[in-house]
Amino acid sequence: MARISVFGIGYVGVVAAACLAKDGHEVIAVDIDPGKVDAINQGRAPIVEKGLDAIIATTVASGKLRATLDINEAIANTEVSFVCVGTPSAPDGSVGLTYVTKACEAIGVAIAAKGTFHSVVVRSTIVPGSMDTVCIPALEAASGLVAGKDFGVGYYPEFLRESTAIEDYYDPGLIVFGAIDERTDAVLHELNAGLPCPCHSVPLATAEMIKYTSNSWRAVKVTFANEIGNIAKACGVDGQQVMKILCSDLKVNISPYFMRPGFAFGGSCLPKDVRALRHLASEKHVESALLDAVLEANEAQIDRAETMVSQMGGQSIGMVGISFKTGTDDLRESPLANLASRLIAKGYDLKIYDPFVHQAYAEGMTGAGRGNDTEIDLKNRLVGDLGDLMDNSDVILVGNHYAEAMPVLDQSSDKIPMVDLLRIRPDIRSSGSYQGICW
Ligand SMILES: NC(=O)c1ccc[n+]([C@@H]2O[C@H](COP(=O)([O-])OP(=O)(O)OC[C@H]3O[C@@H](n4cnc5c(N)ncnc54)[C@H](O)[C@@H]3O)[C@@H](O)[C@H]2O)c1
Q1: Could you tell me how many helices (H) and strands (E) the chain has, helices first?
Q2: pLDDT of residue 371
Q3: CATH number of the domain encompassing residue 407
Q4: Beta carbons of 95 and 157 less than 8 angstroms apart
Q5: How many domains does the chain have?
Q6: Which of 159, 231, 260, 270 would you call most buried, defined as having the most Cβ atoms within 10 angstroms of its Cβ?
Q7: What's the pTM?
Q8: Does the residue 247 lie in any domain?
Q9: 188 within a domain of the structure (yes/no)
Q10: Mean pLDDT value of segment 270-294
């Protein structure tokens, strides 16, 4: 069992403190608000949360949980601290790090006075890079010690939902943390060992980013459901029934499918159907801000790829894939075809390797039905041999996955300038003349 101090007796801190104490750990909760400290020490929950009062009453009575205003005493009597203070929005919308910084400074002074190894784990929601640029420097400056060597550091975001916080604590949807030292990593693994959920141990900034991604995704889901509900109502349809049935598709709709960062969507259905639903909403005088933004954001992803190719500086571009996705010869509203025509219009010499489209053209099955609305002189640009494309291009632009192309592209990624919209290898990251669109 561990001895843990929890800084911040708010919604996150008090639930963590109570549940850790219930699990048998020795917990000291710390706050700057004497009212919250008194409430805990009297065995009362300082917030409304189902089941919390009973856990606090029991754990305070058994001596597993107590609260204090005294930071030095809390640090001296524990080996790991969780920082759960608030991070309210600053007036410009940026994350407010004042409380986190102050807490880290106070903890830094206390761990220097303590003189033995202590792990500091931030649980507050902070934007990627905050641990490295704000929290660790604050701890080091205040303690005069070196993070990762003299004291441990971790970031361990909280995902609980108020009103079901205790249930979520024992049955979380996701556990992720980062630690810069083995001792802190081991403590975080041990504390989560009994939970029915795998632990993801990742770099600090990845854990920070996952927290924001999670909350933004939750926000998008609410807004999307509301927008669909509004349009459905205007059509005399029950939007709640629509969303319930939509969510019953765990294969494509509620699944990792379509959730991998990469290039724009396209094809014969998604763009036209989003356009039509927006149009319908506008006819019914219903706002569709999210659907509007979807099309704008999709266009921006094509702009982004175009800019990346321009920044590579070559003249001849070898494109791998032109159809709207891997495994089809369908060019209808292909974002790769859109990108190709933009590059051609800019004067680039563009050649394309796409075995399925190449075959379709070789067999004379071309034309508007395939979606090539004559904007690109495709026939003369399609090449059948990937080697030729690699040998005669200043820049390779990877759009679709072809099994035979992957080893060739992988071997060339550090030799020929490459813009990758697909990700030719799961672990490859942008570096030098290899640039992935979002990795
Ligand atoms: N509330 C949620 O549902 C939830 C869920 C997940 C993550 N988060 C995140 O967790 C963090 C905490 O959120 P919350 O809702 O618990 O905040 P809160 O405002 O309810 O609690 C913060 C507590 O920290 C105390 N505090 C401030 N400075 C302190 C210091 N130097 N030392 C000790 N205590 C100090 C405050 O007095 C307060 O009691 C935020 O970053 C938030 O975004 C919140």
Answers
A1: 18, 14
A2: 62
A3: 3.40.50.720
A4: no
A5: 2
A6: 231
A7: 0.95
A8: no
A9: yes
A10: 97
Q: Are residues 199 and 313 in the same domain?
A: no
**Cβ burial, residue 105 (10 Å; 0-12/13-18/19+):** middle
- The atom number, within ligand 1, closest to the CA of 99 reads 28
State yes or no: pLDDT of 160 exceeds 70: yes
pLDDT at 373 over 70: no
Question: 1 C-alpha vs ligand 1 centroid, how far in Å?
Answer: 25
**Pair (305, 197) in one structural domain:** no
- Domain for residue 396, yes or no? yes
Q: Is residue 283 part of a domain?
A: no
* Residue ending a domain, choose from 169, 204, 239: 204
Return the structure tokens found at 295. 């099309």
**For the residues 95-101, what does the mean pLDDT come to?**
97
Question: pLDDT band at residue 375, thresholds of 50, 70 and 90?
Answer: low
Whether 247 is a known active-site residue: answer no
Are 174 and 305 found together in one domain? no
CA-atom Rg of the chain in angstroms: 27
Measured in angstroms, how far is the CA atom of residue 125 from the centroid of ligand 1?
Answer: 9
Separation of CA 221 and ligand 1 centre (Å):
25
154, 121 contact by CB (below 8 A): yes
Domain final position from 204, 232, 259: 204
Q: Which amino acids bring their CB within 6 angstroms of ligand 1? A: 7-13, 30-33, 36, 84-87, 99, 102-103, 106, 124-125, 158, 160, 162
The residue from 197, 247, 269, 438 that is catalytic is 269
Range of the domain at 98: 3-204
Query: Which of 85, 99, 105, 164 has the most ligand 1 atoms within 8 A of CB, as the residue to mutate?
Result: 85
Whose CA is closest to atom 20 on ligand 1? 10
Atom of ligand 1 nearest to the CA of 85: 24
Q: Are residues 126 and 12 in the same domain?
A: yes
Phi then psi dihedrals of residue 123, to 5 deg = -115, -10
